[in-house]
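Example 9 (inverse folding). The structure is encoded as follows.
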């Protein structure tokens, strides 16, 4: 059950983050607020079902950071440092793409300046990120089956003749 929810939450993260990276109309402060609220509802549901140790909540980390990136101030060099220290699960390409797509919804917000994006890129240049922008939402984690040794010893097993397993010999 834990592995299923880890996989499911990974897929939720990948599809939502990919949509965020591809759609200019959803890169706004209000979308960041809505995402953060929805993610907190999912985390609360995991706690209620005792699935905290499943790793499912960790699968949402890139989406959480993207939501926070949409909500942070994006003006000064200190803001750039804060973004760089906060967005550790996002690649440099993803951070820059979200900042380029950021669209103010009301008159109190401003577009992200080119100078600010260059400042972010300068701060992140020492990172060794993979060159991918989108997440592979079809990625599947390997299924792990726990090994539970049997208390029955092999010499106590009786094989019925009707199984036609004469080629097996007890040692």
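The amino acid assigned to each position is listed next.
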């Amino acid at each position: 059950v834990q592995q299923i929810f880890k996989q499911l939450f990974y897929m939720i993260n990948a599809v939502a983050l990919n949509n965020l990276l591809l759609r200019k109309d959803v890169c706004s402060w209000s979308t960041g607020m809505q995402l953060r609220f929805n993610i907190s509802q999912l985390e609360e549901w995991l706690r209620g079902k005792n699935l905290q140790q499943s790793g499912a909540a960790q699968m949402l980390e890139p989406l959480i950071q993207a939501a926070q990136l949409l909500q942070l101030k994006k003006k000064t060099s200190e803001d750039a440092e804060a973004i760089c220290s906060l967005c550790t699960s996002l690649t440099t390409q993803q951070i820059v793409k979200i900042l380029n797509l950021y669209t103010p919804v009301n008159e109190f917000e401003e577009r992200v300046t080119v100078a600010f994006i260059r400042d972010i890129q300068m701060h992140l240049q020492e990172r060794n990120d993979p060159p991918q922008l989108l997440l592979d939402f079809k990625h599947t984690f390997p299924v792990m089956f726990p090994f539970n040794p049997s208390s029955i010893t092999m010499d106590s097993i009786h094989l019925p003749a009707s199984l036609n397993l004469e080629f097996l010999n007890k040692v």
